[in-house]
Amino acid sequence: MVASPKTLVIIGGAKRIGEHCANAFTKDGWNVFLADTDAKALAAIKDDLKDKVDTLAPSCISTNMGLNNILSGAMSTFGRVDAVCHIPKLPAAKRFSDTKLDEFEEKIIAPARSISAAIRLFSDQMVRQMEDMEPTEAKTANPSFIQVFGLGALYGDPGTYSQHVAQSMALAAAKATTIDLAALRIRTNAIIAVRPRAENEEPWLKKRTPLGRHSYAEEISAAALFLAGEGGANMTGQSIILDGGRSMLNGIYDLDRTAD
């Protein structure tokens, strides 16, 4: 009996990272179910990748109802879920003093709540799948969760309190599941990368990156494929950091220095 292809569920990020993850995983033989509120971006991906991809554009992808609809859609189309790549939406950048109290629950805590709910919901399905497998197949099933964050998950910049706290809380929420998930043979890891949006809005950030550029979506998708595949099978509770050397730099880097 030939095993059916594995299925990746991507939550969010359809315009860039989600699109590149869909391309990378389908080239590796996976099926992909991509959920995002951007129906136009999803239609373009579906048109490009055809039957290897199915999509869903609910009004919200972070609520319990939205996540349940995503799981139901993936199971209806492909019959299994082997990995979930979650790309949470970030709040607008604000200073702490400009953040209103009612924004904490609605926007700042929302990414951590959404990631926690997704892990809780989809891990139940992963466990059910392994229970239905032959013992040898279950041992190599290797289900996993992958979260994608900007560097705000680790570091803060002036005026970005809201994004820093939202991402750091979401990263902590995901990592806190590591031990309990490991007992179920499920892994969870994160990718933390210099995102282009930040450097487009604040060009001076390039001077804090020794390699002088942001991370490309292709690099993030390659890291996700590694984490979901056999190469990352013994990794859990870890973060792959694609920061161009920024975490090693104390101060500002003169990008013109290398031309001398």
Structure description:
The chain is an alpha/beta fold and 260 residues long. The protein is 43% helix and 14% strand. It has a seven-stranded parallel beta sheet with strand order 3-2-1-4-5-6-7, sandwiched between helices. Helix 2 (39-49) links the parallel strand 2 and strand 3 (53-56). Helix 3 runs parallel beside helix 5. The protein is globular and about 55 Å long.
The overall number of domains is 1
Strand arrangement, largest sheet? 3-2-1-4-5-6-7
pLDDT averaged over residues: 89
CATH topology: Rossmann fold
Classified by CATH, the class is Alpha Beta
CATH superfamily: NAD(P)-binding Rossmann-like Domain
Number of strands: 7
Structural class label: alpha/beta
InterPro entries: NAD(P)-bd_dom_sf (IPR036291), SDR_fam (IPR002347)
GO molecular function, one term: oxidoreductase activity
Organism: Hirschia baltica (strain ATCC 49814 / DSM 5838 / IFAM 1418)
Keywords: Oxidoreductase
